[in-house]
Structures are given as structure tokens and as C-alpha cells.
Specification:
The chain has 643 residues and is an all-alpha fold. Helix content is 57%, strand content 2%.
Length: 643
């Protein structure tokens, strides 16, 4: 038996690690701690050496611990033999070597140092984390977005009206008639200097050349709705027939591409239509043609109103406000420079049309933005059918598309140079971990809806009664929710896509103030014709010419008015909320309000222009900032327009 347990050299597989130097350095130490030699030296009768060796081997302990176990078992069996018991009886009473090995191993492990236990726990944690990360990664890469909605079609369905009620096909054909070079060329800047300007003759010639198109536009403006459908195949058919592909984008609603990429050809082209009408009205005013002035201004108001469509995008509504504001400015200049071109009856008709704009209110519709947000979510997340889902690999790539320069460092690590294999591999390894930090579909959707609903509620009613402290608190909540490495990723879609709701409502209030001022200016002009002088107070216009004096939407007081040097000045207190007696700021834009909510003392102080205080002059308009004239031909400059 002793020969069986003599020290043996390394086996076939152990020879891989065998070197003469290693054997020389460790040979004596290994031999000293080899339990086989200890078992052989004990010379115990069979089968006790086998039992001891089996227990020692199955303990899977350190070599020194194995030696201790071997010595303890040798001592145990030696005591039994000394007591006169046989080796077979001792082996039988000992029981299963495997069970004994498990118990001994458990006891030895509990006795090991705390440092070893901590390291073992750490390694177990790392191993478990790697397993969990591997499982999560598999789940992450297995998930796919589900395009359950075609919001293009849903928006178009809400806008569907009978063909005869649609203005867009008429505008589209009118733009085809204008042609690519002329459609986007006309601008009131061309005739701002009047007949003395070098572009006057060119603008007048262009207007005369395209009277058929202008008549079509006026007919289209009489329709109740624009009737523009996103990605409408009929637009492509019409464009191909008229060789007008330059006007229509390539998108088709049925393709269900991202809603964020919708070009909105109809609303964007309406700007060009409105510019032609505004320029024609100014030229007609110089010619003394009041009928054309009234027709053009009324048509421009109609074009502005048509932009407010069901499920409207904010850009459509802002285009409508911009067209209306420019039209009111155009009216103000016509009243100031050629006051007699419109008769009293024409002025009354125009005043009624202005008052009826959007039903006398200026509501804002965010349903299109909500659809746009949900469309982005469905392209990034899985869909569990209950409004929730998890981020996908496609979603991270989509985020990279939305945010060309990721502001969040964790998101930027998912971007890799496609030509660098190691970078691509690194991005693939890291992306599942980044996806864990990004909030779920439901979290982003709920946070978006909550912010939007709260902000909308805070901007209802008269602007001078809005709760400034609540608006500031809401803005702080928004910033806290989208800033920082964690929240910036958790609500990444909210940070990228939530519209500036306050700015939109402020734009609507500027439009409402412009509308009120235009009505007051018409009333002042009619009064002046009747009495030969200007009224001392706006209250004198009520109720014959105005139902009531409009409010200054910045302070809630009646709109401010003064007669200076025999000329009327209709004004608002402007950005700084101080009544400066109708004196303008050095630069007119310094007085334009960017926020209609009441201002605290500190904010009001900051709002004062560094060049001096002043008021927002509403009528008569301040002198235009005339563009510099050049010798270029407009036909040449229009060649730079995009195809």
C-alpha cells in the first residue's frame, strides 16, 4: 500500500505547466505538503488509506488544508485501530466519504480568513453580474420596435374633407403656374422703397405676369380649410404632370417613415403664397386700388387661418401666426402711408374679418406634437401592448439619428466609427448597459404628457394673470427631469422632443395683441375721417367703432394711446412693463415681449434694454429697416433655390 501512495511526477496534462525551474523551486515544498505522502507514511491497513485519500481529494481545499484533513483522519483511524477495532469496521462506521468530504469542506471554508471570504463574494458578484448582463444583452438584442401606428394616416384621416372644400390643390396649381424661380422670389422687401426702388418695376412686372395665379390664390383663400394631407400621392401625380417636382417632397404617407421628417409642403409653401398677396396689396395701395387691397389682405388672412388644421403640427400653427402678423403689419403700413385707399365700408369689412380670425380666440393645438412624440417612441422601444416597452438596439441608433451630437456622455459611448471594428464591438458591448439607464417607454410617455398638460394649464386665461411662480417651478421640474447623466438618459426623448410650450403661447399672445391693435387702428382711421382730428382717448371709439378698448396683454390695462405732435401712437408697455409714453426703443425688437407672464422685480429689471427703455409701438408702424439694394438680377439669385 505504501508503494501506491508514493509521490508521483505530474501527469500528462500537468506536464503543460511543468518546467525544471518550477519543479526545482516548488518540488521540496510540494512534497512537504503532499497528503499522499502523509497517508502512505501512516501505513494504515486497507481500506482506510483509500477512504482518507477519497475524502481529501473530494474536499477540494487548499493543499495545506488537505494535509490537515489527512492528518486528522489518520489520527482518528489510528485511535480506532488502537482500541482494537478492525479497519473494515472503522471504514463502515465512517460512512460515505463523499458526504464526509462535503461536511469537512463546509467547516474548513467557514474557518478561512475574512479577506478570502470577501474576495470570494466579490468574484461571485462579478460572475453573477456577467451572467445577468449576458442574459439582459440577449434580451436587449432580441427586442425589436413595433410600428403599430401610422400617424401620417391618422392625421390625414382627421383632416379629410370633400375635395371641393380643399384650398391646397388650388394653391399647389397656382405655385406650379408661378414656376420655381418666381414662386419663392416675391417679397415685400422688393417694394419697400416704393416706386423709387430699383426692384419696384421688376416686382410690378412679376405681379402683372402672374395675375392668373393670384386669382387662383384668392379663390383658394375663400375655402374653409387648407386640406393639406401629409405625404399625399395625389401631390406627386400633380407635380409630375406639371413638371413641378421641386415643390413636392418624396414622402408617401403609406410608407410610414418617421413623422419627424414630414416636410409639410403645404404650410411651408403658404408662406410664398402670402408674400405674393402682401406684395400685391402694397402695390395696389400705391395705385389707389382699394378693391385689390381688400381682396389681397382678406385672402392673406384666409391663408393664415387655413394653417390651423386638425392634429396640427406646431410649425403649421406658427406659420399661420406669422402670416397673420405680417398681414396686420402690412395693413398698418397701408393705413399709415396711403390712408385713403380703403373706403369706410372696406375698412369695416376688413375689421370684421380680422375680428373673426380663428373665432376671436388664439388656441394652440399640441395633438400633432403628441403624435410626433409617440411615433418616435414606437421606433425605439418594444411594445408590450399596454403602453410600455424597453429600449432596443434600433432605438439607440435612432437616438443617434435624432441627436447628432449626444450631450450625454453615456449615450455618446454607443456611437462608433463604422470603419473601426473594435469600436463597433465596444459599442455593442456597452449598449445594453446604457439601455438600462434610459427610462422605459411608459416613463418617457408619462413624463412628457405630465409636463405638457401642466404647462398648458398654466397658460390658460388672460396672460397678465398667469402664475409666474408656478411657471418657473414647472420649468425647474423640467430641467431637473432632463439634466444630468442619469435623468438626461432616463427622459432622453422628453429632453429632445418636448416643445417650448411657453414660447408657443407667448407667440399666440403676440398675435392676439397684433390683431387687437389692427382693429383699433382701423377704428382710429375712421374716426379721423369723420372728425378731422384724432380722438384724445380710445374710449371715444366705443361703442360705435369698437365694442370695447382692447387690453394691453402685458399689464391688463386698456391698450395705451397718446397723440404726439398731432399724430396718434398706439402702443403696449412692452418687454419691461413700463409705460414710457409711447416712445420706441432704439431698436424696435428691444421692446418685443418674449414672455407675457407677470414679471418679478428682478426679471423686469433684466428685461430693460441696455440701450434704454421704451414701448412696443403697435401703430403707426415704425419706419421699415430697408434692405440694401444690389445690382443682381432676381432670376440669377433664385437659381440658388433648392431643387
Amino acid at each position: 500500500m505504501a508503494e501506491l501512495y508514493e509521490f508521483q511526477p505530474p501527469g500528462r496534462f500537468a506536464r503543460v505547466r511543468y518546467t525544471p525551474l518550477r519543479e526545482a523551486l516548488r518540488g521540496e515544498w510540494t512534497a512537504r505538503l503532499d497528503p499522499r505522502a502523509e497517508i502512505a507514511a501512516a501505513a494504515l491497513p486497507a481500506p482506510l488509506p483509500d477512504v482518507i485519500y477519497t475524502v481529501v481529494r473530494r474536499c477540494r481545499l487548499w493543499r495545506r488544508e488537505q494535509l490537515d484533513v489527512a492528518r486528522e483522519l489518520i489520527a482518528h483511524f489510528s485511535d480506532g485501530l488502537a482500541a482494537g477495532r478492525s479497519s473494515e469496521a472503522l471504514a463502515h462506521d465512517f460512512g460515505s466519504p463523499q458526504q464526509a468530504a462535503r461536511l469537512i469542506r463546509r467547516a474548513k471554508l467557514r474557518a478561512r480568513p475574512l479577506a478570502w471570504k470577501s474576495w470570494r463574494v466579490f468574484l461571485s458578484f462579478i460572475a453573477g453580474s456577467l451572467v445577468v448582463y449576458a442574459l439582459w444583452s440577449a434580451r436587449f438584442y432580441w427586442g425589436q420596435p413595433l410600428l403599430a401606428h401610422n400617424y401620417w394616416s391618422e392625421i390625414n384621416a382627421a383632416r379629410r374633407v370633400p375635395q371641393p372644400d380643399r384650398a391646397w390643390p388650388i394653391y399647389r396649381d397656382a405655385l406650379f403656374k408661378l414656376g420655381r424661380k418666381d414662386a419663392h422670389w416675391m417679397d415685400t422687401d422688393k417694394i419697400a422703397r416704393g416706386p423709387e426702388g430699383k426692384d419696384w418695376a421688376k416686382a410690378v412686372a412679376a405681379l402683372e405676369r402672374h395675375q392668373d395665379a393670384l386669382r387662383m390664390v384668392r379663390e383658394g383663400a375663400k375655402k374653409t380649410v387648407l386640406g393639406y394631407y401629409l405625404g399625399d400621392p395625389d401631390d406627386h401625380v400633380a407635380a409630375k404632370a406639371a413638371h413641378g417636382e421641386w415643390l413636392i417632397g418624396e414622402q408617401i404617407a403609406e410608407e410610414n417613415s418617421e413623422l419627424l421628417s414630414a416636410l409639410l409642403d403645404g404650410p411651408q409653401s403658404s408662406r410664398s403664397i402670402a408674400r405674393w398677396l402682401e406684395t400685391d396689396a402694397r402695390v395696389a395701395a400705391f395705385k389707389g386700388d382699394g378693391g385689390t387691397v381688400l381682396a389681397d389682405l382678406t385672402a392673406a388672412i384666409g391663408v393664415a387661418e387655413q394653417q390651423f388644421a386638425p392634429h396640427g403640427m406646431l410649425v403649421e400653427q406658427l406659420v399661420g401666426m406669422a402670416i397673420f402678423n405680417v398681414t396686420m403689419e402690412n395693413l398698418g403700413r397701408i393705413l399709415a402711408t396711403t390712408p385713403g385707399v380703403l373706403s369706410d365700408a372696406q375698412l369695416r369689412d376688413l375689421a370684421h374679418r380680422i375680428a373673426a380670425f380663428r373665432g376671436g380666440a388664439m388656441p394652440v393645438d399640441f395633438s400633432g406634437e403628441r403624435m410626433l412624440f409617440e411615433d418616435c417612441l414606437q421606433r425605439a422601444y418594444t411594445d408590450d401592448g399596454h403602453g410600455n416597452g424597453r429600449m432596443t438596439w434600433d432605438g439607440l441608433q435612432y437616438l443617434d439619428h435624432l441627436e447628432s451630437s449626444p450631450s450625454n456622455g453615456l449615450l455618446s459611448v454607443c456611437r462608433a466609427d463604422p470603419k473601426d471594428p473594435s469600436a463597433r464591438l465596444g459599442a455593442r458591448l456597452v449598449s445594453p448597459g446604457v439601455a438600462v439607464v434610459i427610462g422605459s417607454r411608459e416613463e418617457n410617455s408619462q413624463f412628457y404628457r405630465s409636463l405638457m398638460e401642466d404647462m398648458i394649464a398654466l397658460h390658460q386665461g388672460d396672460p397678465w394673470k398667469w402664475d409666474r411662480s408656478a411657471i418657473d417651478a414647472h420649468q425647474q421640474r423640467l430641467q431637473n427631469g432632463i439634466q444630468g447623466p442619469t435623468n438626461g438618459l432616463k427622459h432622453v426623448f422628453v429632453g429632445l422632443l418636448l416643445p417650448a410650450i411657453g414660447a408657443v403661447y407667448n407667440a399666440a399672445e403676440r398675435t392676439a395683441q397684433t390683431r387687437d391693435a389692427a382693429e383699433a387702428a382701423i377704428a382710429l382711421e375712421i374716426w379721423h375721417r369723420r372728425h378731422g382730428t384724432w380722438p384724445e382717448r380710445l374710449e371715444q371709439l366705443v361703442p360705435d367703432l369698437l365694442p370695447a378698448v382692447p387690453a394691453d396683454r402685458l399689464d391688463g390695462q386698456p391698450l395705451h394711446y397718446v397723440v404726439r405732435d398731432g399724430q396718434p401712437v398706439l402702443y403696449s408697455v412692452g418687454r419691461d412693463r413700463r409705460d414710457d409714453g409711447g416712445r420706441p426703443t432704439p431698436s424696435p425688437n428691444d421692446a418685443l415681449p418674449t414672455d407675457f407672464a407677470p414679471q418679478g422685480a428682478e426679471m423686469a429689471k433684466r428685461e430693460v434694454s441696455p440701450e434704454g427703455s421704451g414701448d412696443w409701438i403697435l401703430w403707426p408702424p415704425l419706419p421699415e429697416e430697408l434692405p440694401e439694394e444690389d445690382d443682381g438680377d432676381p432670376a440669377v439669385t433664385t437659381e440658388l433655390l433648392p431643387e
